[in-house]
Amino acid sequence: MQLEYCLLLAAALFGIGIYGLVTSRNAVRVLMSIELLFNAVNLNLMGFSNFLDPAGIKGQVFTVFVITVAAAEAAVGLAIILAIYRNRETIDMEQFNLLKW
Amino acid sequence: MSHFFSQTIWLVPCYALIGAILALPWSPGIIRQTGPRPAGYINMIMTLTGFIHSLLAISDTWKMPPQYLSFNWLHTSSLTISLDLEITAVNIGALLLITGLNFAAQTYAIGYLEMDWGWARFFSLMALFEAGMCSLVLCNSLFFSYVVLEILTLGTYLLIGYWFNQSLVVTGARDAFLTKRVGDLVLLMGVVALLPLAGTWNYTELAAWAKTAHLDPTVANLLCLALIAGPLGKCAQMPLHLWLDEAMEGPMPATILRNTIIVSTGAWVLIKLQPVLALSPTTLGVMTTIGSLTAILAGLIAIAQIDIKRSLSYTVSAYMGLIFIAVGTGQTQVALNLLLTYAIAMSVLIMSIGGIVLNNISQDLTQYGGLWSRRPISGICYLVGAASLVAFPPLGGFWSLIEMASNLAPSYPFLFGVLLVVNGLTTFSVTREFTLIFGGKPKPMTVRSPEGLWAVVLPMTIMMGFALHVPILLSQWNLLPAWETLDLTVVSELIISTVVGGGLAAFIYLNDGITKPIQLQPKALQDFFAYDLYTAQIYKVTIVFVVGLVSQLIAWFDRFIVDGVVNLVGLATVFSGQGLKYNVSGQTQSYVLTIVLGIALLGIALCYPLISFLH
After folding, report:
1. A57 — contact with chain B (CB < 8 Å)?
2. Optimal mutation site among B578, B587, B591, B599, interface A, most CBs of chain A within 10 A
3. Which residue of B83, B131, B267, B429 lies most exposed, with the fewest beta carbons within 10 A?
4. Neighbour-count burial for B97-107, b at 16+ CB within 10 Å, e otherwise
């Protein structure tokens, strides 16, 4: 168990999250991908906190904040999706292209 | 007071210029009520003033050393251009000739342009010509000679284009302007190139410089060839001779002035430049070659014409060719004499045929005949003019020509032969014209042909009187060659060529046994000369074609390549804007992808220098 593996795992998770964020057509899956990104960040924070700052563990405090904010963000995001769904009867990301040239 | 008139001789061009300006208010658009005639009268008074002034001045300068006047025209850092005037008996004599002939031509125009409304334009242009020629004769500076030559070129354009509603007039004026302009422009090259070499444009100083100058032969050749190009165009020499033929579309009184004096302006510059031209033997050779070719070919062309004005216009080219020969062989005095006798004789000839054309409408020689019994005055004037033009003793042309011939015969036998041939051809041509107009039987166009108005006949007879008096004047001025020094064989050969030419023409055209119109065998040869060696076609397929093609190419290049490159920049911007807007896909996710890619690339760019530390 090393810091590098931890970071690489977090980076891989971040990459998967980005992939899902960019390619998903379902808006809820986009939100889920964002959650993956947060989790990748949290893994990083935890890894650094455990390996580099075992005494202070400031990273763990940050992680708690991130989880809190992620929950709040998910709530707001789902509310936005619901608001859009009520107007447009769809959550397909490719239908939300009002700014197209 | 004794030199008052010669010191104020520079007023002579000013008189004419004032006349030119005063005539303009009688243009039909300005004074609408009274008709244009006062314009002519004012100009005649001004010309007469100039004539009298010159007459009074010539006695001041007679047998006196030349006087010089100089006005500063322009002074910049290292260049001073001064308007130098030279006052000698020769110059004032030329002024007399110019003002006198212009007065005659203007009187003639009073009669000839009786039915014309454009007097203001006509007379002010004639006055402009007079002013130009008087200043050309007076000025002693090559630079100002060039200035005046260009003004005269513009004047020629306007005067030939007098009746501009005729299409041939428009093309004729165009050709006259462009042809003379080309010569003048090459002359300008010579004038500009001369200043660094000689350091002056003053003719007197140029002559002094030329005596001691040591020029590289190539430089001298190029310089002198450029200097003769201007007179080449002005004097209607080959190959720049077509304009004079087409200039015959202009009004007849202007033709009098043009064919006698204006073509002589080039010769005047040439005579003035003779000391410089002598620096380059090649140029002298070119001059005599061009002069000989023009003289002989124009003599032949004149014979083949059926238009009476054009037949005389080629004789003008031929005589200017003789002047080229004279200057080319260093006989400036002979050239001046020839200009004098030629101008008077030619003016009588043109006035005579002008009177004929005025009352017979046609200019076609084949439509004429049998006018002698009804137009005796015109006939006699024509005869005197013709006889004074060629070597017919004892009239004026004879003396100039024998002087030239006796100078040529010992050292240039070939040129002497040319002179003989030209004299014979000219005699043939003027005799042919005389016999066709005055001899034979009346034809439909000439059945009723009254003598012209007094205003047409009077200047003609007065000029005839002058022509008759030229030998006496020459002997008074000691300009006649001494009879003892003349080679009598040369003289008799010249007379024989006159007699043969004139006799042959009279025999052919007065003989009813020979069918008219005469067909030469082969016909192609006759056409060759009748159509002026097809010069118009030659111009068209050579210089006009090349210039036209090049200008079309350049216009095409400008329109499509130069403009195209600039338009391409605009178009590229438009198309790139049109194309790149599709990057804004409207998909939030694609924006996110762009942001991520941007961050990733920025991160790579920032970290790139650190990659080497990884190991």
Report:
1. no
2. B587
3. B83
4. bbbbbbbbbbb
